[in-house]
Amino acid sequence: MLLPVMWETHAAPSLDARPQAVINDQLVRDCDMLVGIFWTRLGSPTGEAESGTIEEINWFVKEKKPVMIYFSTRNLPSNCDIDQVKRLREFKKQIQQKGLVFDYETPSTLENMLFKQLTTVIDRMNVTPTVNVAELKRATKSEAVSTENSDTKSFELNNIANEEVVILYDYTDKSFVVAGNTIAHKDKFKEWGGRWMKARGGQYVWMFAKKSNLERVAKLLKKKKVLIPYPVAPAE
Q: Is the separation of the CB atoms in 23 and 11 below 8 Å?
């Protein structure tokens, strides 16, 4: 299953950093692939790259995650920004030297190409979590540890996945995640603003803001309102 993510629909307001850095933190780092579609604009400089899209492309390339780039060949509108068009054409020349990109003429052409090519890319991807049963049992026994206890010891756990256990983890200063069998609660989680994402280590979890959701999520799952440290990925 693929879920499209765009900053216009999935990002939340924040004054913690520059705009693109916020988008990177909230969205980009949790995504599995990037699809870039260009017509007349390259975008605005971010301070790190020529545009937000370029900064995202560079990050995906660095992380060795799939990047699919498409350029529209439709006629340019009369009111287009010529400077943007020039910058975009220069970017296209540069990126064509680094890999394979595609042109398309109509939205239906793009749709047909994406349907086939996304399938090709997904067939080459491996996002299946693995299970470490011994560590999962140890994590379950540690569930009563409160996040308010500064002496809480972290533990190592490799890609939690279990059909019976649901665990609440301390993920960041402002967020927590829920791992395990949560399918019965997915509609309620969506309603509360939860985000289904691939967390560090590869497992898929629901992410929530601590301030507004910890109490009601714990109550829904019939859990104590406590979190345990997020698993540290074992060294390779």
A: yes
Identify whether residues 105 and 12 lie together within a single domain. yes
The domain of 210 spans 133-229
Question: Where is average pLDDT lowest: 50-64, 118-132, 136-150?
Answer: 136-150
Q: State the SS3 of 111-158.
A: HHHHHHHHHHHHHCCCCCCCCCHHHHHHHHHCCCCCCCCCCCCCCECC
Say if residues 36 and 69 touch (Cβ distance below 8 Å).
Answer: yes
Of 123, 156, 185, at which residue does a domain stop? 123
Q: Would you call 25 helix, strand, or coil by DSSP?
A: helix
Helix (H, G, I), strand (E, B) or coil at 175: strand
pLDDT above 70: residue 155:
no
- Other residues' Cβ atoms within 10 Å of the Cβ of residue 170: 20
